[in-house]
Specification:
heterodimer, A: mainly alpha, rod-shaped, B: mainly alpha, flat
Chain lengths: 162, 197
């Protein structure tokens, strides 16, 4: 605490306790920020906790229970907040392996290219089938056959030259 | 379903809706007791309780068990809200009703337990037992019933300076003891971790 204050240490402590523990208003002319600024946050927090503990100790003697309707209202608000929290948690990025889910438009593009692929595959199969299909029986080329072919061709040639 | 000593606020912060009901079962009575004494009317007390619990739900994720117990965290929120409301309204509860209630409820400063609400409250109770009956009454009227020091002086016949001294000394004693306990608990856990490592 600084010594520049016109208040003594006890005065300042009294004023701080009035605010955080006893809930009184500041004395006329007193500045809340000036007083609170002279204490560490942890000091203020400790006195708040002490006051809360005293309040709990006093309340413990009484077995009050929340009125039913009030309890329902509080529970409704609480469930709504919890639901929001759950939504936030589920929307947060997960640590599980990532999976790519294409967008709708991308899914359409994939579908189109996918069908082209099928078409290409089908065409390849068709070509292979046609290529492998057995043609008519291949005539065996014998010397006699070659000779006969040549004679026929020669006749044609003589006819042309003539 | 949560167990009796399990903290509920982290569950609420993670979206567990059933923990909301458990939290109301566990702390609803306490908050209602505080509001009833620090608000001038029942309607205002009901509004205050609703506001307090909304703030509790929203701040559930900020609860840190190493700083204070769950019941103290909730009582701090409740008291802040009640004090704020009272400052805004610029008035305190009707003192005559409070004094009657204090006497009827046995509020003669003798703080005997019928229900345990957290370690800090137990410490506060221990400290209050060490105080004189007069000092206990001042602390109780000031913190639990939210009465001004001037009103307490008038209703008890004690000089204002004495009332202020009783309230301040009592609270400082509770604060010191809470601090000591927290420090020894931290030392204990540190020793435990050293042994285990």
């Amino acid at each position: 605490m600084s010594d520049a204050s016109p208040y003594s240490r006890d005065d300042l402590l009294d004023q701080m306790l009035d605010v955080v523990a006893f809930g009184s208003a500041f004395p006329a002319g007193g500045s809340p920020s000036e007083v609170m600024g002279r204490f560490e946050t942890s000091d203020v927090q400790e006195f708040e906790h002490a006051a809360a503990a005293v309040a709990c100790a006093c309340a413990a003697r009484e077995a009050d229970s929340l009125p039913r309707e009030l309890r329902l209202r509080c529970a409704g608000a609480g469930r709504a907040v919890a639901q929001d929290q759950r939504r936030v948690h589920s929307a947060a990025p997960r640590q599980t392996p990532l999976r790519f889910t294409p967008k709708r438009s991308e899914r359409g593009a994939h579908a189109r290219t996918g069908s082209l692929g099928w078409l290409a595959a089908a065409a390849c199969l068709l070509i292979a089938a046609v290529a492998a299909w057995p043609r008519g029986a291949v005539e065996e080329v014998t010397p006699e056959l070659q000779m006969a072919t040549l004679i026929e061709t020669a006749e044609d040639l003589t006819r042309c030259s003539a | 379903m949560s167990t009796a000593d399990q903290n509920l606020l982290p569950l609420i912060a993670s979206g567990d809706q059933s923990a909301v009901e458990d939290c109301l079962d566990r702390y609803g009575g306490l908050v209602w007791s505080l509001a009833r004494r620090m608000c001038p009317t029942r309607d205002e007390a009901e509004d205050a309780v609703q506001e307090i619990f909304i703030e509790v739900w929203k701040n559930a994720g900020r609860f840190d068990a190493s700083i204070a117990s769950e019941v103290t965290f909730i009582a701090v929120i409740a008291r802040r809200r009640l004090i704020d409301r009272r400052r805004r309204a610029g008035r305190r509860p009707d003192e005559s009703t409070i004094i009657e209630e204090t006497i009827r409820d046995g509020g003669n400063g003798d703080v005997e337990a019928s229900q345990v609400v957290g370690e800090e409250a137990e410490i506060a109770r221990e400290v209050m037992r060490e105080l004189s009956e007069e000092q206990q009454r001042v602390l109780q009227l000031s913190i639990f019933y939210g009465q001004s020091h001037e009103k307490i002086a008038r209703s008890t016949g004690l000089p204002l300076g004495t009332v202020k001294t009783h309230a301040r000394r009592g609270l400082i004693r509770v604060r010191d003891l809470l601090k000591e306990r927290r420090a020894s608990r931290l030392d204990g856990s540190r020793d435990g971790s050293e042994v285990s490592s």
